[in-house]
Amino acid sequence: MTEPRTPDDSAPPTAGKDAQGNPSADAADPATQATREAAEYKDRWLRALAEMENLRRRTEREVSDARTYGVTQFARDVVSVADHMERALQALDDEIRAKADARVKGLLDGVELTEREFLKVLEKHGVRKLEPQGQKFDPHRHQAMFEVPDESVPSGTVVQVVQSGYVIGDRVLRPALVGVAKGGPKPAASDEAEATAPANDNSQKS
Question: How many folded domains does the chain comprise?
């Protein structure tokens, strides 16, 4: 006589049921599984959206930089033309100009007009000439060539421009070569206060 079979505990559970043969939570509640899948799809969608936004911003920045700085090398080459015109005009002082005849004066006026128009064209393409004369020396935009003893102005003031400098957008195309005053009066008290203000704030915070 055949003995009755007992349930085999090692047999895998039936699909949709747990080890005890009871319906699993996912099978018993399809909404839970659907909610989980929806959350996963939403997370993937948000990640893809963020990546697309970062790509869009990076592309816009690269296009803007290319538009602004694409002529950097060309501008660096052509500013030497402005240097030659500036030197030609500086070679003649006011006394020589006053004694010059009408034809020479006409030539000088033509050179000055050409220089102004040339600078306007450069500005149209984002290239601007620096005017450091009388300003405080800025190591980011100026290159000091020598010091000039001059007590009539504060020490560190640009008193002579050897070669004009230019900027393109927010970047320095070529620093201005300048002479800087030495031995003048100290900066005004207000300037010193502004210079030390950040340090004082930091000391108070600490």
Answer: 2
